[in-house]
Amino acid sequence: MSIRLLLVTQRKLIESENFTEIIPQIDKEAAREKGPGRPPYWEMIFWWTRKPLISARAFTAAALLPEDVPMTEFKRMVRLTDNTRPPHNLLPITNGRFKEFTVLDPFAGFGSIPLEAKRLGVGKVIASDLLPTAYIFLKAVLEYPKYGKKLVEDVKKYGEEMLKSIEEDVKELYGDTTGYVGTWEVKCPHCGNYTPLVNQWWLLKLDKGGGKGYERLVYMKPEKQGNSIRIRVVDLNKELNKKTIKAEVNESDGTKYEVPEGNIEAKNSYARCLICNNVFPGKGDKWYVKEALREWNENYERFLNGEITLGELRSSKARPKLLVKFKGRSKDLDFEEITDDDEKMFWDSFEKLKEVDINKIPIENLAPYGTIRISTWGTDKFFKMFNARQLIIFSKVVDYLNKLYDENDEYKKAVLTYLAIAFLNHIRHNCFFTSIDPSRKFIAHTLAFRRLGFTWNWVEINPLADVIGSLRRSLDHVIEGLEYLIQTNSDSKIEVLNVDINELNLPEKVDVIITDPPFADDVPYPEVSDLYYVWLKRVIPMPYRTQWEELIPKDIGVEEGRAKVFGNNTGTYDDFREKLAKAFGKLSNFLKDDGLLVTFYNHTSTEAWVSLLYAGWYYSKFKITAVHAVTTEDETRITAQNTTISLDKSMVIVWRKKAEGQKLLQEVRKEAISTVSDYVSTMVQKGKLKLSTDTYIEVLGKVLSVFTKYEKLAGLKGEREKAVEELITNHVYPATVQSIIEGLSKGVGVTISDPYAAYYILVKLLIPRPEKGVRKIDKTSLTFFSLTGNLDFKDLQDNGIVKADKDSISLAEPNQAAKETLEVISELEKLLDKKALLGDYNFSNPVQVFHYLEYIALKSKDKLKEEIEKLREKTRFVDEALAIAKIFAKVLDEKDVEKEPSKRISGEEKTGILRWTK
């Protein structure tokens, strides 16, 4: 019995302070993966959420190892010791250490986590996902690489055959053109002519970086010719005969160069005719342009059904329009005007489309609600996302792949899967809903906006061209990805499952569950990944007509439009919370008593925390033992001035079975503050506290570990999710703030109790200093910094702590651009009431007193003693103002403009705080 107890309570490395200290190093490598060090297999196909491999590797290994493993050994194991190459390019060094363990990822997606468990040599790795599309991709990432180099060679062989099979059709439909840029043209209700609608006219705008000028500057220019519009190409590199253009050119040799403004803004229901200059009528769903596009889509279907002629189709109020064509490769593209032959080739293909077997093109319905924004424009069936020659070529690819399929040959299925992935990657780059990205890859794929959104400047590419997104280039990416994946092979037993978590059954319990569970405002995966599914099912037999029609009732996600189709509150927050709770209940059943559940979670909004804690703690009786902030996304890194920061961070939460016992809520709060503030104080005294937005999340995790170790909290108001919301908002957040403030105060030897002082200190210390301007935080993160649980924006604004911006909150601090003493004094004067500067004090909080003392310390430091004595007679906030100064003198960023005045106030000089604090 005692031995079993020891096993249950043995902490793992992921739960230790030692592991916390290397998170920045993991983050650094993760950021490299998100940039130039991307794993090659990521280029095979786009998937919305892919955890960096080093994060998956490090957290998985740390969840399996005991806490006393030396960090040098751990870093060597996961390959954090080689700075010349991304760790994911190096195999972990585990020497069979994990061969007795089983790891489960029940929301495996694209498989980053199980892939790294496989590379670590975990004995058994189980990866499951609800979606058939994800299941196929998981097989490609985790299972099929077992066939090794022969598989690579056969994918190359059959891939070349696939390309060759469409050569004649491509030549007939595209000639020698690499691709086209197009848009929609609409018949003007005022003048009766067709006008192209273009939101921006740039084709290429390639910045060399570092102020070295532009590598390419090319744009389109519309010119009125009678009752039509000619689109001219302006290539400044050619016109100016320069390889590099130092700036955007307005005029050269008497010729003006001006990029026209777009003539459509869909979000404002604005479109202007380029011929008569009149604006199209209507708004919203009654907007003329939207009605015209709906008519095109209706007519497109009627045409294929033989109900109308091609001439009638072309007479629709809206229709696709070719703007320019291009030749060449990659970014070295030459653009040319469209000819009559180009137009004829485009429209003739619609007649040819009638000859295609209807079963080879996707006639399935898109989800008819807000998730799929293109459906409001009449694109209600998947085939309407494509023009005729795209559908013709795609049907030929489907024909070829169908010939390869053999139900009884698993190896052939593997080959076919990789060819299908190349095909899907081409499809996402080649439809009506791509767009131009002039500053980067030129082609922005259909899923670049995370959902299927309507676009205006679409790109169509020759499948055999050598450009990003072509079928040829997609095949190259698949081969490179597969060559990478076969190097990940290990002795692990891999099991890939396509099952709803509530229907998942495992013969034995697992040691670790590590996963990225759904969160409320995540991508609506069934709906958007149907773009892949409806083509994939034509190559590999699939069980459903569409994923959305079959799987939405089982999907864990928020999409309000779902309820209109499926009823029962499907897709609401309540539905999401209950489904997530049941999923966590299943995870508890899968996990060994001494096992760990590790969840990646992409944000920490109050709603997210309520859902997560409701599922994990309230419903499933898990307790939190550690939380790690992970900052791997670009938007969390501060590089630009006046950046608005959110505490909506990625994080990794470690859970154990199980919460037990009962205690008074207020007693637990005291316990949390006492325990966690001591930790913060110790870190301050040791000089190890590195303050950042991550600090808040780490402290929040420690506070939660105290609250959630109890199954019941006596005195907690409300039931179910209301009780959890009450706990988070009025107890956990304030306890986190108080723990940080008390920890800082104890570490420095002062006391802070004023909520406005606490807010100012936290924002100053946790939000990175901008190079210019002031710190900003988004309004939704305000709750995190409340010391009392009821501090709101108006309170802060009325007390001069913050100022209102359009989309954010600005801290009332001196502008960080101030470098000289006189400049800082001037900035402080702007913050202070003019009467105060004249000695007529009327301060309402310690922050105002602190700013006044800063002003005096910089302008007349010999009068500091006198002013402090005067202030003591007029206000009770002096001691806390001096406490703010001492905290800042100890831990504020050295480059912050308030660092020096804080030092002057707080004790580096004899007139400082050590003398004046009572």
UniProtKB/TrEMBL annotation:
This is DUF1156 domain-containing protein. Signal peptide: none annotated. Residues 25-68 form the DUF1156 domain. It comes from Acidianus infernus. GO terms for molecular function: methyltransferase activity; nucleic acid binding. GO terms for biological process: methylation. InterPro entries: DNA_methylase_N6_adenine_CS, DUF1156, SAM-dependent_MTases_sf.
